[in-house]
Backbone:
């Protein structure tokens, strides 16, 4: 598996709402940083944030618009541009964003998303 | 020159406040998209947006934290994570963001920055 494939697999697991499989690809002390909101550390914290999302929506579809990777599975970086889509009831909520992933020793050690918080709040409010 | 080098050179020109040199690296119909604000098209529009910034601050320092590129100068993509720093008077204004650049036929045809607008407004207000 390459860093590029690792991140695509990670996102596939989230789309399948399989948080355990997704988090198995993260390091124990991973940093998860939603830039305009907050950053947390560790798999339990990631699950606490993502759990309500995955259980609160009927479908998840994260479109990778562009993605580029450097390095390898020992030490790599993956950057992508995405449209994260969540189906809430009958409505699709969409958030355009850019993601940063750092790979260390085969696991995702950093996941950071850049987006506009007001855009997200407006999208959620519908 | 590679796509990676093209974007680094582009940013160096902006840091030097040389908008003519920077815009010479963009295609005539380039898209410049500040995601939470607005997108514009064409070099004149880029200059109208960046001009007041470069003339309104004493120093510009855009730190590329991470950057990754794919493709070539005919058709390439460069993604980066940056801290864009502007010195206004005696104060440095900093904005963390992620940038997307598309290269077509040797020029930047798309420049898109993802950031939180409220963070930028707070930083500007000081």
Residues:
């Amino acid at each position: 598996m390459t860093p590029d494939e690792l991140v695509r697999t990670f996102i596939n697991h989230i789309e399948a709402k399989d948080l355990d499989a997704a988090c198995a690809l993260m390091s124990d002390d991973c940093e998860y940083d939603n830039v305009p909101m907050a950053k947390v550390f560790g798999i339990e914290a990631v699950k606490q944030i993502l759990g309500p999302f995955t259980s609160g929506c009927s479908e998840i579809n994260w479109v990778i618009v562009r993605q580029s990777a450097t390095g390898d599975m020992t030490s790599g970086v993956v950057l992508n541009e995405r449209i994260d889509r969540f189906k809430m009831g009958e409505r699709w909520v969409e958030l355009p964003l850019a993601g940063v992933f750092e790979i260390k020793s085969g696991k995702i050690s950093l996941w950071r998303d850049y987006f506009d918080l007001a855009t997200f709040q407006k999208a959620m409010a519908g």
Notes: Chain A has one domain: 3-125. Helices of chain A lie at 3-15, 19-23, 43-56, 117-125. Residues 43-56 of chain A form the longest helix (14 residues).
